[in-house]
Specification:
100 residues; alpha+beta; four-stranded antiparallel beta sheet; 29% strand; globular
């Protein structure tokens, strides 16, 4: 099953100028449980998907909210020359194709 078919919300945003967050929210515990147990959403898989060092990826589950937050280091400081997405609002795109 694809993550996009299971999650209610998949979004990204800045977490300060040095980090991005990816938020994945689910409608129910069953969807959340399936996703949180999938190796496809573990730090090494996310790191490979985004082309970053796994040591710079934090995957934070929030069971009470049926949500998963992923924190990544930004490759470029937000707003610096060369930053194509100053708000980090388009960085969730790679997650849309993830198979759980």
């Amino acid at each position: 099953m694809r993550l996009i078919d299971l999650a209610r919300v998949i979004r990204s945003k800045n977490a300060g100028p040095l980090h991005l967050t990816l938020d994945i929210l689910f409608a129910d515990a069953a969807g959340y449980d399936r996703a949180v147990q999938s190796p496809a959403l573990a730090a090494p898989a996310i790191a490979q998907l985004y082309g970053v060092d796994p040591a710079t990826v934090a995957v934070i589950p929030f069971p009470a909210a049926h949500a998963i937050k992923v924190v990544l280091d930004r490759p470029i400081v937000a707003g610096s020359p060369g930053d194509a997405d100053v708000y980090g609002a388009q960085q969730h795109r790679p997650l849309l194709g993830v198979e759980l």
